[in-house]
Amino acid sequence: xxxxxxxxxxxxxxxxxxxxxxxxxxxxxxxxxxxxxxxxxxxxxxxxxxxxxxxxxxxxxxxxxxxxxxxxxxxxxxxxxxxxxxxxxxxxxxxxxxxxxxxxxxxxxxxxxxxxxxxxxxxxxxxxxxxxxxxxxxxxxxxxxxxxxxxxxxxxxxxxxxxxxxxxxxxxxxxxxxxxxxxxxxxxxxxxxxxxxxxxxxxxxxxx
Length: 208
Ligand code: GAR
Prior knowledge:
Helices cover 33% and strands 25% of the residues. By secondary structure, it is an alpha/beta fold. Strands 3-2-1-4-5-6-7 form a 7-stranded mixed beta sheet, covered by helices on one side. Strands 8-9-10 form a 3-stranded antiparallel beta sheet. β2 (30-36), α2 and β3 form a beta-alpha-beta unit. α1 (13-23) runs parallel beside α6. It binds glycinamide ribonucleotide. Catalyzes the transfer of a formyl group from 10-formyltetrahydrofolate to 5-phospho-ribosyl-glycinamide (GAR), producing 5-phospho-ribosyl-N-formylglycinamide (FGAR) and tetrahydrofolate. Its EC number is 2.1.2.2.
């Protein structure tokens, strides 16, 4: 079985969706470790409930960003991962980290990329009066939220929406699309080659 390591910083609802999918046999792989850069991340409780080993590394104990990521690599490599899935991991990864796991890191980002990389996506959607919003699963490259997109989900934005209601509706969809993409990867159907995402040998994205 292939090994999955999941990185979180907070709530962990996407982690929960991945745990549930694994339990239901919908992900052909094993979540063998959960890592958090936040001591109080609620997702750590979810991992404990599911009897998945957890590790914590806080920036305050390791302020140098490269040292932090080298430390992280060392911890993660002990699980011999085939895939690193970022699930609300809110710390930017160094090129050192990204190169070490080239083509093996997935992220879920709450916007219709390439729109709104970075933070506060729901706020920016509201401020710009966008009529639609969504979430994207993509391969991680050195460019922040800039790697090739694999799968997106869309929602309509209503006049009475707030950041909170948008976040809630987006998360419901994330919990469907993320496990699906992770399973594609586990089945060996998905890869990143020449800067493009490929599913079943077909290109999914234009090269940027
Ligand atoms: C998710 O909506 C995810 O898309 C977003 O954080 C949330 C985490 O929720 N990720 C980012 O903003 C990455 N920059 P969760 O902890 O409940 O899974």
